[in-house]
# Entry
Amino acid sequence: MEKIELANQEALRRMLTADPVLIDVLPAGEVLTGLEERMILHAGPPIEWDRMCGPMRGAIAGIAVFEGWARDLEDGERLAAAGELMFHPNHDFGAVGPMTGMTTLRQPVMVVENRTTGNRSYCTINEGLGKVMRFGGNDEEVLDRLRWLRDVLGPAMGAALRQSDGIALKVLTARGLTMGDEMHQRNVACSGLLLRALAPELARVATDTAALAESLAFIAGNDQFYLNVAMAMGKAIMDPVRDIEGSTIVTAMSRNGTDFGIRVSGTGDRWFTAPVEMPEGLYFPGYGAEDANPDMGDSTIVETIGLGGFAMAAAPAVAGFVGAGNASEAALFTRDMGEITVGENPEWTIPSLDYQGVPAGIDVRLVVESGIAPTINTGIAHKEPGRGQVGAGVVKAPLACFDAALVGIAERLGVA
Amino acid sequence: MEKIELANQEALRRMLTADPVLIDVLPAGEVLTGLEERMILHAGPPIEWDRMCGPMRGAIAGIAVFEGWARDLEDGERLAAAGELMFHPNHDFGAVGPMTGMTTLRQPVMVVENRTTGNRSYCTINEGLGKVMRFGGNDEEVLDRLRWLRDVLGPAMGAALRQSDGIALKVLTARGLTMGDEMHQRNVACSGLLLRALAPELARVATDTAALAESLAFIAGNDQFYLNVAMAMGKAIMDPVRDIEGSTIVTAMSRNGTDFGIRVSGTGDRWFTAPVEMPEGLYFPGYGAEDANPDMGDSTIVETIGLGGFAMAAAPAVAGFVGAGNASEAALFTRDMGEITVGENPEWTIPSLDYQGVPAGIDVRLVVESGIAPTINTGIAHKEPGRGQVGAGVVKAPLACFDAALVGIAERLGVA
# Structure
């Protein structure tokens, strides 16, 4: 047992000493090793077409059109069903993606470097709210936005970041926590702080002020812009925590809309999966639980580093948005997550808890012993392809993943 | 007494129905009626040169050089002492200014219109932190910054705002309250939200991207940028509350570094003054209470509308910055201010108090009866001319002002 404690302390040390910096935006094909034509990276653990949920299928068909592999959405579905597209998890390529999490060759991805360890992680640019591809949207409006990100905003952000020193995300995130963000369902403060850092750099490299105004307005108009940055940051922080022999710390939690999967440090890249659960939450006018797709996305990497549902106390405003009770109840979520984590992050503190650090380092043993599942703040997609977001809520990670992981660790340590 | 209650309800109604919008930036000389050459508007109630404190004198000498009335700082002091400069309160010209509060012909002022009532208020652009004129700074670095505001940022903001619909401040401020701002000593959220609104408009009218990058970087680099906007907003909200016969609601609190003055609705533009108090707070490294100038500035207009010290519960991070205790103690300040106000503002709510509105409408009767003085969050200037900011703290409005105002009201109503 002492071996596990030491391994987990090392895991926590690596988490807390990470130094994630947003340094570039480049086409995925230029930076993701092994990414090929007709290959689609998706959120969550591995899954094939026949088991994919509606919004994931909708996104697959849409991105196939965007990439020029399919003539239209029907053709995209046909290619997928015929096995002519390859599907892999983002996590196997150093990437993460929110909700459906489509990552393909020609999409621009943000590059976050962990300057402590030198590893890099990647995430596409957040598309905004409503009918967007991450929620299964796939019509021309959705594809046109992806083309604009590819042709205008992505190159502009890349040029701006390359001539800057990069944007240090640890301090920016710390500041956002003091401004009511939890970085999963509320990112308005960090999105504003990021724009403050980016805007002068974007202006410095701009040649077309109309395009610049468009880029600034796009970022300024999206309160969730920072989500994808926080996700790439999470991946950059957690990747070096992998493969510590004996460690029971969770290095990734992720869902593909069908399965929920976790990875644990001591068992490397093995996925422990269980069926995803349904979020409980609030729906946009005209929608209800009957429209909702089950839990989906790589965005739970944010909870894996102690933010999102784990930092609910920092964001009383989000508690109402996700239907998690009033402001004074938000603190209870953070307290509960303290029961299943091995430490606190002294650099990410919550003012309303008198600067207590966010709970960091999910220990599968503590989850199994306590029966307390990680709480996740999440968006909710319509269950049919092409529809988009219908609400936001709270969902639990399935305990079965943690049970299976504990068995896996025990086998690995030869104690099962 | 019923007459007073009705008058105060009308005062509160006018406060709560105000609709302040940032619409323009123009040279003060173009918009402040009656502003002339060699006329200097200052913070607080009226004061002449011989009673002015050190930083106010420093600012006077500096602005005389900026305006071209004096050859150098010594010449500026000589002109002032010789009676060759005219001094008037900002408040008498529809304006407000932080700390020393210098407003003169060639400085750009932000224009806030109260769209409910049509009145306009004005405030200069915040210069940033450290050695700046509002804290008594007056060297070439300070004057060069004022020249850049006059020649670059002011005209750019004006052009950007004029081709926009303006920036609605009530909603923006409400959002800032959910992000940890109290709008006096903490404005980081609102400054970011304002930049989000302004940046695309600035880009739209830009002709020189280097100047645009400079402007964006200046706003982005100043966490207190919104303070002066909040002040003009406060003035625009409170001016229509003046002159309600019988009302005991405070319409302005202000200090010139020597005297603290308040105005009350039922007694119009009459000042009730008392000596200013010393802030209690925290000092920057190398400075202490022995360096501090007493309380100064028109910025207390922010407390007059229920923000600043009144909204301390919204900003646990500021409680530490101003030396007002830990986060959980911040709520006590807001609770106390509820004892001396006639209502709450349902549109400006505090998440951590389960969305209670900020205390609004200071009633001089309640202040006198309870002995609870309005709490003000404030910056602290060095007491010598030319030095700048040395700290931040909390200060009380002197009760003697409220005692005098109550007598004034009673006389006016013929009951004294």
